[in-house]
């Protein structure tokens, strides 16, 4: 295997319906961390809570994210 193949093969696949770069970022964050609160995502990603709530609401409507108390996880 080539050195460049190793770096790219580890990246998780994103659902094709994710169009927004910020939604992709949130999805990848949850893929890496398993679960997180809005505060944790905001601190780690440097995003405002209101933006995160909007993105998470959209991801929940698309059945990509579940909410368990204050934490969000991928479905």
Structure notes:
This is Sugar-specific transcriptional regulator TrmB. InterPro entries: WH-like_DNA-bd_sf, WH_DNA-bd_sf. With 75 residues, this protein is of the alpha+beta class. It has a single domain (19-74), classed as Orthogonal Bundle (Arc Repressor Mutant, subunit A), CATH 1.10.10.10. Helices cover 55% and strands 15% of the residues. A hairpin with a 2-residue loop joins β2 (65-68) and β3 (71-74). The model has no long low-confidence stretch (mean pLDDT 90).
Number of helices: 4
Task: List the domain count as a whole number.
Answer: 1
Shape: globular
CATH architecture descriptor name: Orthogonal Bundle
- Report the major sheet: 3 strands, antiparallel
Under CATH, the topology is which?
Arc Repressor Mutant, subunit A
Looking at this structure, what is the CATH superfamily?
Winged helix-like DNA-binding domain superfamily/Winged helix DNA-binding domain
CATH class: Mainly Alpha
Q: Would you list the SSEs in sequence order as H and E?
A: HHEHHEE
User: What is the count of β-strands?
Assistant: 3
In percent, how helical is the residue content? 40-55%
Alpha-beta content class: alpha+beta
Terminus-to-terminus distance? 32 Å
Question: Assembly state here?
Answer: single chain
> What is the average per-residue confidence, as pLDDT, rounded to a whole number?
90
Question: Which residues form runs of ≥5 with pLDDT under 50?
Answer: none
Rg estimate, integer Å: 13 Å
Strand order across the largest sheet: 1-3-2
Strand content: 5-15%
């Amino acid at each position: 295997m080539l050195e460049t193949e190793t770096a790219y093969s580890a990246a998780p696949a994103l659902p094709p319906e994710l169009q927004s770069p910020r939604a992709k970022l949130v999805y990848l964050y949850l893929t890496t961390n398993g679960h997180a609160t809005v505060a944790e995502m905001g601190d780690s990603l440097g995003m405002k809570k209101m933006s995160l709530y909007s993105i998470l609401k959209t991801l929940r409507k698309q059945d990509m994210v579940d909410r368990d108390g204050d934490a969000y996880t991928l479905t």
